[in-house]
Amino acid sequence: MEALQLASKLNLPDWCLAAGFVRNLVWDKLHDYEAATKLADIDLIYFDPVNDSAEKDREIEEYLKSRSSLPWSVRNQARMHLKNGDQPYRSTSDAMRYWVEVEAAIGTRLSIDGEIELIAPFGLEALMANTITMNNKRPKPDIFKQRISGKKWLEHWPNLVVCY
Fold it and tell me: What are the DSSP calls for 24-54, one per residue?
């Protein structure tokens, strides 16, 4: 909640905390882990085509790190299509549709009323099924395999099943 509340105060357009922030909690629960897995970073993503500079992301990260000890990573999805060689994305959710793993494309944010909202362009079925699924919009098996081994997901969550 600390991360969600701090991020919500920024009033960024179309924002959410995504990827491992939600995915790891679900995988921990599916594996009956009592303690949450420590995150390498907290991915704060947003969509602002008006000011899409990397410098703005760095400024937001510095601000967040000055307010908490959490490991922030901030990325405006309005420019990420350039890094990935895709057509311009239309929103945060649209950008998530191009991520390497389907289960990573999950995010959460606080509504204006303080309610938790989920952003799940692929739905929740794969995430709840204990799988790691290669996204067919990013069909790069070598990168997919490299991420699985590099992040040691199968070591940490041994019940996961890899799906191509």
Answer: HHHHHHHTT-SSPPPPS-EEEEE--SSS--H
Distance (Å, whole) CA 47 – CA 36:
28
- Dump strand ranges (E) for the chain: 16-18, 42-46, 72-76, 107-110, 116-119, 131-133, 161-163
Under CATH, which architecture does the 2-163 domain have? 2-Layer Sandwich (3.30)
Percent over 90 (pLDDT), the chain: 98
CB-based contact 44:144 (threshold 8 Å): no
Distance from C-alpha of 6 to C-alpha of 12, rounded to nearest angstrom:
11
CA distances from 43 to 7, 31, 33, 119, 125 (A): 10, 23, 22, 14, 22
Per-residue pLDDT tens for 100-126?
Answer: 999 999 999 999 999 999 999 999 999
Asked whether the whole model's pTM tops 0.90, one would answer yes
Give the separation between CA 106 and CA 24, rounded to whole angstroms.
11
**Which stretches does DSSP call E strand in 33-151?**
42-46, 72-76, 107-110, 116-119, 131-133
